[in-house]
Design a protein that fits this description.
By secondary structure, the chain is an alpha+beta fold. The protein is built from seven helices and ten strands.
Length: 267
């Protein structure tokens, strides 16, 4: 694809170390919007991830670097990559030279047709020619076939795809974030959570505590009953039989008494 330059770069701008995004926005003459280069990349409306910059137009190129802020520079065809650095503004032959010079920790992310919500280049070969082109555009922006009914689309067929895309994106920005804008952030959050879970050690399976049954104390023998005192028995009664003569006399006396009673009673 070929591109046309919408924002001519001012290569006479002098940058300042640590303010790479401010330098790039001033080079292209666009307003400041995001606090860091990495934020500008994450919110780029027309990014080209992992693609080498075009050879016919000047574009912003984005890189990750040590820390959360990232880095951004300007790729200028036939001249090199203009970038801020600790030694002042530098011109590198290409992106690979910039990455090598910056050292370990820098990774090329890609380039974008826009910076801080402003297009600096535009593709000249893509046109909206059919309603199906619009369908795919809406699918990429809204994750659905058609946008809100209030978005006018009648005049889009026959226009440049880049222009129509910017109009649709502007509408999306005014009416809530588009799906593709939040998707990378959600995917990163999921990846971070998965990495965090994977890094946590698996808690050991608790070993059940054995139940200790207490041993009953040995049986205590009952003390022997104290010896009881011997029970005193009454003296044995000795029956003494009377002499035979006494017995006979006794019987005779009883018979005499009985006879006397009968005589008294006249029996």
């Amino acid at each position: 694809m070929t591109y046309t330059q919408l924002k001519q770069p001012d290569l006479n701008v002098i940058g300042q170390e640590g303010l790479c995004l401010a330098y790039v926005t001033e080079v292209f003459g666009v307003p400041n919007f995001y606090p860091s280069a990495i934020n500008a990349w994450q919110n780029a409306q027309l990014p080209h991830a992992n693609e080498q910059p075009p050879t016919d137009v000047s574009v912003p190129v984005f890189l990750s670097y040590n820390g959360p802020f990232g880095h951004v520079a300007v790729s200028v065809p036939g001249k090199g990559v203009y970038s801020t650095s600790a030694l002042g503004d530098e011109i590198f032959s290409d992106v690979a030279h910039l990455v090598s010079w910056m050292g370990e920790g820098m990774t090329y992310l890609g380039w974008s047709e826009d910076v801080n919500k402003v297009k600096v280049v535009q593709g000249v070969t893509d046109m909206i020619t059919t309603a199906n082109d619009l369908k795919y555009l809406y699918l990429g922006v809204y994750a659905q076939d058609t946008p809100d009914a209030t978005l006018a689309t009648d005049g889009f067929i026959g226009q440049d795809l880049g222009d129509v895309t910017m109009k649709v994106l502007d509408y999306a920005n005014k009416n809530g974030f588009a799906y593709w804008q939040v998707k990378p952030k959600l995917e990163k959050q999921i990846a971070d959570l998965q990495a965090e879970l994977a890094a946590k050690p698996t808690p050991p399976t608790p070993t059940p505590t054995p139940v200790v049954v207490p041993t009953p104390p040995p049986a205590v023998a009952s003390p022997p009953a104290p010896a009881s005192d011997p029970v005193a028995l009454p003296p044995a009664v000795v029956t003494v039989s009377p002499p035979e003569r006494l017995v006979v006399h006794h019987q005779s006396l009883l018979l005499d008494i009985i006879a006397w009673i009968k005589s008294v009673l006249h029996l």
